[in-house]
Amino acid sequence: MMREASTDDMNAGAPPPREPSQRTLGAQIDAFALGRFTPVQMLETYAARAARFNPRLNAIIDTRLEAAREEAAASADRWGRGAPLSDIDGAVVLVKANIAVEGLPWTAGIRAYERRIAREDAPAVARLKAAGAIILGTLNMEEGALGAITDNPWLGRCFNPWCEGEDITPGGSSGGSGAAVAAGLCAAALGTDTMGSVRIPAAYCGVAGHKPSRDLISTEGVIALSATLDHVGPLTRSARDLRALTQALGGEAMAAGFRIAGARIGRWRFEDALDCDPDIYELYEAVLSGLAEAGAQIIDVKPQHYAYARSRRRGLLISEVEGFAAHETAMDDTPDGFSRTFRDLLHWGAKQGADKVEAAYAAIRACEADALDWFKRCAVVLAPTALEPAFRFGEEIPAGQADLTAFADMAGVPATAAASGLTASGLPASVQVIGPKGADARTIAVAAEIEARAGGPLVPPGY
Length: 463
Prior knowledge:
Layout: H1 25-34, H2 39-57, E1 60-63, H3 65-80, E2 92-96, H4 123-130, E3 134-139, E4 151-152, E5 156-157, H5 175-182, E6 188-193, H6 199-205, E7 208-211, E8 231-236, H7 242-250, E9 264-268, H8 278-293, E10 297-301, H9 309-333, H10 340-350, H11 354-377, E11 380-384, H12 406-411, E12 415-422, E13 428-434, H13 440-453
Parallel strand pairs: 2-3, 2-6, 9-10, 9-11
Antiparallel strand pairs: 1-3, 4-5, 6-8, 7-8, 7-12, 11-13, 12-13
Helix pairs in contact: 2-3, 4-7, 5-6, 9-10, 9-11
């Protein structure tokens, strides 16, 4: 259940004329510039929606509503003077609970850290504030960022807003981030992606998510799972909004677009190795056909070294080894503050031999070599984000859930997930755009094109 910093006056301020769940961040910024409504009104609308929907979703854990109101008032004043700080000034953002937000609990969803209060913002959060963003609070996640469904033993389950009365997972480990954006509880959210933990929730929840190039966005102030593989990345309703968020987070100017006509785009041929839901695959092929009609040249590619399940397991081993190092002292001091499942995974990694661990790190270098090979031939490579749509809690977790997402984390290259439509059962499907290191603006631009051609952004029924 969300812990409110203040629950008084949740509906203060006249709401904007349409629900924020139907407004992209770009549309909000345009409305601020035209004076049609203000960041104060936007914040109050999100706060009211959180009070209405979060008891069902369990996405938001802690809020700083009074501080957010001060930030919103300052943003409204800047817009009133025609002096916004950036293209995200006034954006209401929620932050995954493993990323430090000054004054709020900083736990990574681990009970052992429940009394830890962040003394300062993580650099990623500080950059957003410096750009005028309004930080509303923190979000539910898998314990320690290690997991696939966001069923946290201490914080409770987070539910997917596409569930329509069924208990469907939002994915993990940034499940709260995906659910909050999809439900219209914020304009954007921060997550972390170690083997797909931004992009899989984005896919399951029908929103956009960006895993940046390695080292583009600081991971300081993040309770680490894997210092080697962790990436901080934004989630938004529309892929078009990812560019402004990523630019603010990375502190570097990003090119505005990319020309599809004439571009060489790779089709990741994985069908001989992995099973894919037929609807997901059909929508993936439709995306490729649409890009070909727009003038792109589609080229088939396969990785030479990345070995799907074997490589994914090696990435998991790195996470377990480095996660054990990050939490060893706390596990010794407060063993009951860690679930048995999480603790056993970390201890298993710590027990593995040096040869096995070295082979895992060698897999990272092999992925980097695959990426270099691909991007000599292609501007970007496309693949489904997840091989399946969101599924019910209690169902078996797909073994290969991260088989197509772990590659970009291991290679250190950018990957952007965008909605590609709905399956026959009415659940979101997603395609990820993978590019060479440093080409974040390119993958975001192609993802935005895919989303637009697929009729997105998507809004869950009832939200």
